[in-house]
Specification:
By secondary structure, the chain is of the alpha/beta class. Helices cover 17% and strands 43% of the residues. A hairpin with a 2-residue loop joins strand 6 and strand 7. The model has no long low-confidence stretch (mean pLDDT 95).
């Protein structure tokens, strides 16, 4: 059986990206691997074994074109309203709170936030399938 262990995104500025993910999601650098032409940063927190891998290509000065294939990363939280307020207070510019119903029942409550490189992250209230 396969186990999901990480997802990778390319970022332009290591400090800006790690600062965002630390403030927004409590992710700290678990390991930093420096190579000649790139650096890999594995971010994690005690909540999950799943990691976010940031790849910083050295010498790159222009942002990445995300194209139309990327959708979003998703995280779940215990108190969505408190997280939305915290993100707002940190100046992270979260999107509006959304309540999504299906068949007359709550399916999901969430908001989106965009990281410094343009990647969208969905922040979901822990409920139902979103644990």
């Amino acid at each position: 059986m396969a186990k999901m262990i990480h997802s990778m995104i390319r970022v332009l500025d290591e400090a800006r990206a790690t600062d965002f993910y630390r403030k927004a999601f409590g992710l700290d650098v678990a390991e930093r691997l420096d190579f000649d032409s790139f650096t890999l940063l594995y971010l994690s927190n005690p909540e999950s074994e799943f990691e976010l891998e940031l790849t910083v290509n050295k010498g790159r000065e222009e942002g990445y074109a995300l194209g139309d294939g990327y959708g979003h990363l998703a995280v779940s939280v215990d108190d969505l309203d408190a997280e939305h307020a915290r993100f707002t207070g940190l100046g992270l510019n979260p999107g509006k709170l959304v309540e999504f119903n299906r068949d007359g029942a709550l399916f999901a409550r969430f908001f989106f936030v965009t990281d410094p490189d343009g990647y969208k992250i969905e922040v979901l209230q822990r409920h139902g399938r979103f644990k």
